[in-house]
Specification:
Helices cover 31% and strands 22% of the residues. With 314 residues, the protein is of the alpha/beta class.
Length: 314
């Protein structure tokens, strides 16, 4: 079982090894399963991620789809060569607008997949295994009451050093403190911003989805609000390594996260669009000082896409 003890609040915890392929194939039955890989300029790693899933999990997974989030490199070519089906956010329902961002890629993936369960895997993984996919799918296939399955892992912070169960800087300094203050029922979620997770399609179709990095936080909060802690599971995936972002990029991520979280407390950010429809664009200005003692402004999108079930037919 998981190294993280059960907290007595109904949060299901397991380890990836609890979900071997043979057992999942038995549980799968007629359930269709997609793995979606959102990708932005990840030509160096996306091929290895996609090809491993195609090679190891072809009997379990019906769709391996890379959603290219306006990459300027050869991400799409690398993903196709690895055996994935590739779609650009620009070609998926352009009538609804074209945005960058991880959440946008996830939202648009619902237009080009038809599976019952969807697992999301980051494109920049360098130390991982396809047990990540098996792990996050296991609770959904085995427990009908679980709607969202989140991974957690030991993060390899610096090559050659010991792995750590700590989350990233935004996780530990923003997400977990916010949960402690406003959603204490979720304090036992080890890494609320982990990029490896799975969800029931019907559940995701009912949720508004932020276009940027706030999507992991929003799904956690929204599923909890609708189904309680018993609707969420977490799975120990072992070790994980990936590329790290600059502190200024993490600051922008923190802004998105706080906007998403405060919106779900009924406190929309200053300047946010009043009505979140398919064409609204909410944004806030993040200001920092560069090495030359000059101000640098960056507009951070805090836009959200509406729930799929509320969209008008195309």
């Amino acid at each position: 079982m998981s190294r993280v003890p059960a907290d007595g609040q109904g949060l299901e915890s397991s380890v990836a090894s609890d979900w071997p392929l043979d057992a999942l194939l038995t549980l799968k039955g007629s359930t269709r399963i997609a793995v979606v890989i959102p990708a932005l300029n990840e030509e160096a790693t996306v091929g290895a991620v996609a090809s491993a899933i195609v090679a190891d999990l072809s009997d379990l997974v019906d769709e391996v789809v890379v959603i290219d989030s306006l990459s300027t490199d050869s991400t799409a070519d690398a993903a196709r060569a690895a055996g994935a089906r590739v779609h650009s956010v620009a070609e998926i329902r352009p009538d609804l607008g074209i945005r960058g961002g991880k959440g946008e890629a996830i939202w648009k993936s619902l237009f080009v997949t038809d599976s019952d369960l969807i697992a999301f895997i980051d494109a920049d993984l360098t130390e991982w295994g396809t047990h990540f996919v098996r792990g996050v799918l296991g609770p959904l296939l085995s427990k009908p009451q679980v709607h969202l399955s989140r991974g957690f892992y030991d993060r390899i912070l610096v090559a050659g050093e010991e792995a750590s169960l700590e989350g990233g800087r935004v996780t530990e300094l923003v997400a977990r403190p916010w949960l402690a203050l406003f959603r204490p029922e979720l304090v036992s979620v080890v890494q609320p911003l982990a990029g490896e997770w799975a969800i029931r399609r019907a559940t995701l179709e009912a949720l508004a989805i932020p276009t940027g990095y706030g999507v992991e936080m929003s799904t956690l909060l929204d599923v909890h609000a609708e189904y309680g802690v018993s609707g969420i599971a977490q799975v120990d995936l072992g070790r994980r390594a990936h590329q790290h972002q600059s502190i200024h990029d993490l600051a922008a991520m923190a802004v998105e996260l706080l906007a998403v979280a405060d919106r779900r407390r009924g406190h929309p950010a200053e300047g946010e669009a009043a009505a979140l429809d398919t064409h609204s664009r909410g944004g806030v200005t993040l200001r920092s000082v560069d090495a030359g003692r000059l101000w640098s402004d960056r507009v951070v999108s805090i836009d959200e896409r509406p729930a799929h079930r509320d969209l008008r037919p195309s």
